[in-house]
Write a structure and sequence with these properties.
Blueprint lengths: L9 H13 L21 E5 L2 E4 L4 E4 L14 H13 L8 H13 L5 E5 L2 H16 L3 E5 L25 E4 L4 H11 L3 E7 L14 H14 L2 E5 L22 E4 L10 E5 L4 H6 L10 H16 L2 H22 L4 E4 L6 E4 L6 H12 L2 E2 L14 H20 L6 H7 L1
Parallel strand pairs: 3-13, 5-6, 5-7, 7-8, 8-9
Antiparallel strand pairs: 1-2, 2-3, 4-10, 9-10, 11-12
Helix pairs in contact: 2-8, 3-8, 5-6, 9-11, 10-11
The chain binds 4'-deoxy-4'-aminopyridoxal-5'-phosphate.
The site of 4'-deoxy-4'-aminopyridoxal-5'-phosphate has 13 residues, from helix 4.
């Protein structure tokens, strides 16, 4: 699939028009029509390895990877084979197939803290199940979360209060990520009612610089939970399998009691999971968490194949190396064209921001120019690499971003916002 030089969005525009009549807001959630920047396609027709194709036939090197799920590249053969085999025998049956047990065994072996596993569909299902199990296991109510962290789109944690009541959040308390003083204060406020501390693998809130946890912070979270008998819940929905194969906080030598996964565990097939330690096994068997589609087999077969493959090829090592190559290339280009940029977060899940660009307008222009040159980037959400991003693919993407930086510079744009406005 060669990168086209001009982008036509004829089919996309027609679909948007039809969608606006029958889908509120044209689309929902993070894909709602108004959230897709002008000049970006909304509808896609296919994916292959490191590339996605929109409905108008334009192909892009894909650095969103379906917003995280695609870790081995689109339509990875081993995963597709495993899914096809399950589909041939039946996916949605009266109960789970043996894939559920195989996958639970695999996850217990894979993740250092895990003594058991159970499965859901979406990350929100998994974080909600963790909160429910923490409350059941401790007999307490308060859950501490970092201010601004995303844990899903259900009332207790949705980033929007539209349609949500304050009662839905009654037992949610906030602290600042990486700020031990504010964590201490929130723990004190929760007092004897502290059921759990829910924390992301790293700070990846929308539109702000990403931050890895400090070792001291990760240990402080663990120490508080140990002292008061609360659950340390790691939300590894976004980062799992991209940073460390045994769990994202293994690097810090901190293990959670409960951990939520989704996104990459099944290379794009709908699956989420919760793993836990023995201390929460009986609570996990007492709570009623379920769904009509939580037992389907094909996504579980996909997860078994995905986990086997990420181990075989050391996915975190590859992603880190290729993310570092991308980052170095972007840094060199930015400085050559006179732009000041920040790159934050782990190289496997990079975020690129421009200095003096509080509303990410320059970032959006850069992504738009990159898109025109055949590379799909994001200016506010962290991006994702897959293991299909080989050195050759990264270099091809860098050729395109070089052209994008050059165009911005030629149009007179700079980190000074006034230039941006003149150039629009
Ligand atoms: N937690 C984190 C850290 C996430 O990134 C997400 C999804 N972006 C979720 C929870 C919710 O997952 P889902 O969208 O699958 O419900």
């Amino acid at each position: 699939m060669a990168a086209p030089t001009t982008k036509a969005f004829r089919v996309d525009s027609l679909l948007r028009e039809r969608a606006s009549l029958v889908i509120p807001g044209g689309m929902w959630g993070h894909q709602r029509a108004e959230a897709v920047p002008a000049g970006f396609p909304q509808f896609f027709s296919g994916g292959d390895g490191a590339r996605v194709c929109d409905v108008d036939g334009n192909s892009y090197i894909d650095f969103m990877c379906s917003w995280g799920p695609v870790i081995l590249g689109h339509r990875h053969p081993a995963v597709e084979d495993a899914v096809r085999r399950r589909l041939d025998s039946g996916d949605c049956l009266n109960g789970p197939s043996e894939a559920a047990v195989e996958l639970a065994e695999l996850m217990v072996r894979q993740f250092a803290h895990a003594d058991w596993a159970m499965f859901q569909k979406n990350g929100s299902d998994a974080t909600t199940a963790c909160v429910t199990i923490a409350r059941a296991g401790t007999g307490r109510r308060k859950i501490l979360v970092a201010r601004g962290a995303y844990h899903g789109a259900v009332p207790w944690c949705s980033p929007s209060m539209v349609g949500v009541t304050s009662e839905d959040r009654a037992h949610i308390l906030e602290f600042e990520f990486n700020d031990i003083d504010s964590l201490d204060k929130a723990v004190e406020t929760a007092g004897a009612d502290l059921a759990g501390i829910l924390v992301s693998a790293f700070r990846h809130d929308l539109g702000i610089k990403q931050e890895m946890p400090s070792v001291a912070f990760a240990h402080a979270v663990r120490a508080h939970c140990d002292r008061v008998g609360a659950a340390l819940i790691l939300d590894d929905v976004r980062a799992a399998l991209r940073l460390h194969l045994a769990g994202s906080w293994e690097t810090y030598n901190v293990r959670p009691d409960l951990c939520a996964y989704s996104k990459a565990i099944a290379n794009g097939y709908p699956l989420a999971a919760v793993t836990g330690s023995d201390a929460f096994r009986s609570a996990a068997s007492d709570v009623f968490v379920t769904g009509s589609f939580w037992y389907t087999s094909a996504p579980m077969a996909a997860a078994c194949a995905t986990i086997e493959e990420v181990n075989r090829i050391d996915a975190p090592g590859l992603l880190n190396a290729m993310g570092t190559r991308l980052r170095a290339g972007l840094a060199a280009q930015a400085s050559a064209y006179g732009f000041e940029i920040f790159q934050s977060g782990p190289p496997a899940m990079p975020l690129l921001q421009f200095a003096n660009d509080p509303n990410a307008e320059l970032g959006e222009r850069f992504c738009l120019e990159s898109l025109r040159n055949g590379v799909y980037l994001h200016h506010r959400h962290n991006m994702f690499l897959s293991t299909a991003h080989t050195a050759a693919v990264i270099d091809e993407a860098l050729d395109a971003t070089d052209r994008a930086f050059r165009t911005l510079a030629h149009k007179g744009m700079s980190n000074d916002g006034t230039c941006l406005r003149r150039a629009v």
